[in-house]
């Protein structure tokens, strides 16, 4: 699959932002989530896309929808793949394979607000996250592909937010 149209679009964006760097800072599309009862929610995008989530039966859900944690992992993987494809297009590399798998390990006690046996708090966030990438391009060395992935992941927004621990500001409105 040719990445030339993507490369052309990215060049136009870079040119425009070089001329007008003030246009680069923008508000991202919000994710709006509405509770449906129990542990079911519907996440909506302004364009009409909706994703339903639920928890496992062990945690009171029905297990028939993806969990919010899975959406998080999918977001990390999808953002990394997108950024790698963009970097490959800018570098003129024709990818033949690009896949990502994000795995994590979590302690459910953190989600439930439970301490360890000795009373220490348990973190609700995953205690380990691994981004596994599979990439290929004809005529491109392994070293060059690894460098491409490193450059791309260093500016991939979702993985970077995770690595940089972007602060979360919580605003509460009581209805």
Describe this structure in words.
With 175 residues, this protein is of the alpha+beta class. It has a domain at 4-12 and 67-163: 2-Layer Sandwich (GMP Synthetase, Chain A, domain 3). The protein is built from five helices and five strands; from the N terminus they run αβββαβαβαα. It has helices spanning 4-19, 68-91, 108-111, 142-153, 157-164; strands at 32-37, 40-44, 50-53, 95-105, 128-137. The N and C termini lie far apart (50 Å). 13% of the residues are buried. The model has no long low-confidence stretch (mean pLDDT 93).
Quickly list its features.
175 residues; alpha+beta; GMP Synthetase, Chain A, domain 3; 3-stranded antiparallel β-sheet; two-stranded antiparallel ribbon; 5 helices
